[in-house]
Design a protein that fits this description.
This protein has 89 residues and is an all-alpha fold. The chain is 80% helix and 0% strand.
Length: 89
């Protein structure tokens, strides 16, 4: 048995049901948008942390820098010692 819907057909929805449906739609849309915002913020934080990590990896290690400074100090002191030996003779 087919029901024909035309311009004279009346559909009634209780006010309580209508308010429930509208509230559910509003809450669902708020949840989706807030979740998308949080995901975007987390992606931004992850991207920043990745960039920091990559720049940290590219930097020479502290031990390497200290070793280079010690080599320069050694060369300087060696040169000064040789100059003192030459002046002392």
């Amino acid at each position: 048995m087919a029901v024909q819907i035309d311009e004279k057909t009346e559909v009634t929805v209780p006010l309580k049901t209508l308010i429930s449906v509208v509230s559910a739609i509003v809450i669902a849309s708020w949840y989706v948008f807030s979740t998308q915002t949080r995901i975007a913020d987390l992606e931004h934080v992850v991207r920043l942390n990745d960039e920091k990590f990559i720049s940290y990896i590219k930097q020479p290690g502290r031990n390497t820098a200290e070793l280079e400074l010690m080599k320069k100090d050694f060369d300087y002191l060696h040169k000064e010692l040789n100059d003192l030996k030459i002046k002392g003779k």
